[in-house]
């Protein structure tokens, strides 16, 4: 079964919940190697999306929901992560425009477009200690899962698992992008907050599709 507008709504609600639940953790990670606002930034952004979801028509497509979330994040979140996640969701929305039910390949297209949007905006590469270190393994795992005939939900679960691995792998890295790059070697030993929040957001996407707990 494909993933419809109700899935996208559930993903955004789940994202708001998981970001609220891990707000302090994300703040602490960002305090270690940034300015300590990542959890607050995302909590503000996803909280602002929630009331708008209630106003969506029953026939809203995933693209409609993603676009709504994108514009809300861009307009409510200060800091790097608002425009980065906003661009990700906007590009994702364009990638699945007009589709009512997303199959596994459409999910891969959505995730790929999101990752490419972040790269377009932030110019980070894998190994720069940013959210791209979670997104790129997630896209690769999703692509392999879809090629192996997995369901859209399993594709998302594979993406979320790989994002966790990617987030953990940021710990030994020196940052080359974002505020953490000002710290040089002092960033070593700390996990990138954006890579961690990416893991939570992809976990919420899989949970909304019925795979795993958010
Ligand atoms: P700010 O750094 O402006 O305070 P946030 O704290 O909300 O914004 O977000 C920080 C996160 O944004 C970092 O942990 C990193 O994952 C991500 N980030 C910062 N710059 C870039 C970039 N150029 N490309 C990709 N991700 C980035
Ligand atoms: Mg910050």
Automatic annotation (TrEMBL):
GO CC terms of this entry: cytosol
SMART domains: Dak2
SUPFAM superfamilies: DhaL-like
Keyword tRNA processing: no
Transmembrane segments: none
Listed GO biological process terms: glycerol catabolic process
MF annotations from Gene Ontology: glycerone kinase activity
InterPro entries linked to this entry: DhaK_L_YcgS (IPR012737), DhaL_dom (IPR004007), DhaL_dom_sf (IPR036117), Dihydroxyacetone_Kinase (IPR050861)
Record keywords: Kinase, Transferase
Domain DhaL: residue ranges: 6-207
Listed name of the protein: Dihydroxyacetone kinase DhaL subunit
One Pfam family cited in the UniProt record for this chain: Dak2
């Amino acid at each position: 079964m494909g993933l419809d507008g109700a899935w996208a709504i559930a993903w955004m609600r789940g994202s708001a919940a998981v970001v609220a639940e891990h707000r302090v953790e994300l703040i602490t990670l960002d305090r270690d190697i940034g300015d300590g606002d990542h959890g607050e930034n995302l909590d503000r952004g996803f909280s602002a999306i929630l009331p708008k979801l209630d106003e969506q028509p029953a026939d809203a497509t995933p693209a409609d929901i993603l676009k709504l979330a994108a514009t809300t994040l861009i307009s409510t979140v200060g800091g790097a992560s608002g425009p980065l996640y906003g661009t990700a969701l906007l590009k994702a929305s364009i990638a699945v425009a007009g589709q009512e039910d997303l199959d596994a390949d459409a999910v891969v297209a959505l995730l790929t477009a999101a990752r490419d949007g972040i790269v377009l905006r932030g110019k980070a590469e894998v190994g720069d200690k940013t959210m791209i270190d979670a997104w790129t393994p997630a896209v690769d795992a999703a692509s392999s899962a879809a090629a192996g005939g997995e369901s859209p939900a399993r594709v998302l679960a594979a993406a979320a698992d790989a994002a966790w691995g990617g987030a953990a792998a940021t710990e030994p890295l020196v940052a080359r992008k974002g505020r953490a790059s000002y710290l040089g070697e002092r960033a070593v030993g700390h996990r990138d907050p954006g890579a961690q929040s990416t893991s939570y957001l992809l976990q919420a996407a899989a949970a909304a599709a019925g795979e795993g707990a958010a």
